[in-house]
Write a structure and sequence with these properties.
Elements: H1 2-15, H2 19-38, H3 50-57, E1 73-76, H4 77-80, E2 93-96, E3 99-102, H5 107-110, H6 125-130, H7 147-163, E4 165-171
Parallel strand pairs: 1-4
Antiparallel strand pairs: 2-3, 3-4
The structure holds protoporphyrin IX containing FE (HEM).
């Protein structure tokens, strides 16, 4: 009993709190700690499919499946147009300097209604080099571009090479 009294007195001396207040605060801190920990998932136990399962269980529409990019090889410019996102079953493609990239993972940018939808199904080299939304610049023709405009285009190409899978190249009609 003496030990109990000493412990309680020490607690009050060091914390300035009564034992009741001390234990209440400690319990609250434990609850907050557990709640915050519950918001995170241990990387080893992370299951990427879980949110989809949760969406089905809650009767919510499932996010569209993004399939693995398919290699198309040589593609004519006219054929590339079919991959502008108007057919949701087809991948979303875009070309820079004749190289075709699968940009399906950025449907929010290039899909119908997206801010950069006009680039989909096209070689947008000139528009990107000039940072232009003019439909006339939606072409792979880079003739007459200045050194610095070609540099801008080069930066875009590097960004695309890093972010997207190359699935083919444009060939003359
Ligand atoms: C007011 C001017 C603009 C603003 C505020 C703006 C803003 C943005 C933002 C916030 C992103 C998303 C970046 C990311 O999350 O990776 C983006 C992406 C992009 N922007 Fe712009 N932008 C502007 C003008 C332009 C212009 C003029 C062009 C070309 C003609 C352009 C082409 C793009 C492209 C192609 C992407 C997507 C890149 C990707 O696939 O990751 N933007 N922009």
């Amino acid at each position: 009993m003496a030990l109990y009294t000493v412990m309680m007195d020490t607690m009050t001396t060091y914390t300035g709190l009564s034992p009741a207040a001390f234990f209440t605060i400690a319990a609250l801190m434990f609850v907050v700690y557990k709640t915050v920990c519950g918001m995170f998932v241990d990387p080893e136990h992370y299951d990427a499919k879980k949110p989809v399962a949760a969406a089905s269980a809650a009767n919510l529409p499932e996010p569209p499946a993004v399939s693995e990019p398919v290699q198309l090889g040589d593609v004519k410019e006219e054929e590339l147009r079919a991959y502008d996102g108007s057919d949701p079953k087809k991948p979303l493609l875009m070309a820079i300097k004749g190289q075709i990239y699968d940009v399906s993972r950025s449907r929010m940018f290039y899909g119908p209604g997206g801010p950069y939808a006009m680039f989909a199904g096209r070689d947008a080299s000139r528009a990107l080099a000039l940072m232009s939304f003019d439909p006339q610049d939606l072409t792979g023709n880079t003739e007459g571009l200045s050194e610095s405009e070609l540099e801008v285009l080069q930066d875009w190409e590097l960004k695309f090479m890093e972010k997207y899978v190359k699935v083919g190249q444009l060939v003359p009609q």
